[in-house]
Amino acid sequence: MTCRNPVGQVDELMLRTLILLLYGAGLRLGEALTLNASDVDLNQAFLRLRQSKFYKSRLVPFGQDLTEVLRVYDRQRDRQLSSDPECPFFCLRNGRRAQHKIMERAFRRLCLTAAVRRDGASRRQPRLHDLRHTAAVHRLIQWYRSGADLQRLLPRLATYLGHKDLSGTHTISPWTPQLLREASRRSNITSGSAS
User: Fold this and answer.
1) 3-state class of 124 per DSSP?
2) What does DSSP assign to residue 174?
3) pLDDT: is 118 or 73 the higher one?
4) Which residues of 30-41 are buried (b: 16+ CB within 10 A; e: fewer)?
5) How many Å apart are CA 11 and CA 109, to the nearest integer?
6) If 0-12 CB within 10 Å is exposed, 13-18 middle and 19+ buried, where does residue 48 land?
7) Per-residue pLDDT averaged across 118-134, rounded?
8) What are the two backbone dihedrals, phi and then psi, of residue 49, each rounded to the nearest 5 degrees?
9) Which of 135, 145, 130 is nearest to 181 (CA)?
């Protein structure tokens, strides 16, 4: 696997950190790869995304677990590459900014090694971008389970994900069997209390 290969381009810790960031913050791969070291504030636990999709900039807060993951990676990156705040946050072993195709290739190899596979053709196999969708679906499931006010929270989720309106959030959150079960369970509780 490339990330364990000492002459490969992708460092194991960098790939792990990228995967956890994509899921933990619901980022697009391109947003994560364009981060500079100065865009990652580990003291206040937020990312500064500049001019991402739709030319929008936004601040993305993240939790304590993700802060610790990013802190470990940041220390190693500074020791091995550069502590310059304007250098890329996600770097290949040669110090250059990690690129979309290289990271997708490394992720595919990781999935093959771990035997993570979907039924169907190669176009249907897991992608790094799927982590963003999974993060949104898991957030919705948690809100359903906790009885949260989705009408109030969905616009906030759309803003957090960097969508220009709520329709983008509906597209990114496919109705998985688990999400359908939670929505149905909640609907039954609501309609039962109304009768």
Assistant:
1) helix
2) -
3) 73
4) ebbbbbbbebbe
5) 13
6) middle
7) 82
8) -100, 125
9) 145
Share of the chain above pLDDT 90, in %: 39
Neighbours of 156 (CB within 10 A): 10
At residue 2 the predicted structure's pLDDT band, cuts being 50, 70 and 90, is very low
Q: Distances in Å between the alpha carbon of 99 and those of 27, 37, 104, 161?
A: 15, 16, 9, 21
Average model confidence (pLDDT) for the chain? 82
Q: Which two tokens stand for residue 175?
A: 């109705």
For residue 102 the two structure tokens come to: 């290289």
Angstrom distance (rounded) from CA 25 to CA 119 = 27
Alpha helices in the chain (DSSP H): 12-25, 29-33, 64-80, 100-113, 130-146, 150-161, 166-172, 177-194
| pTM higher than 0.70 | yes
Tokens of 19: 């995967």
C-alpha 66 chain-centroid distance: 11
In the predicted model, is pLDDT for residue 21 greater than 60? yes
In this structure, which amino acid lies at residue 165?
D
DSSP SS3 for 20: helix
User: Residue for token digits 């609501």?
Assistant: 190
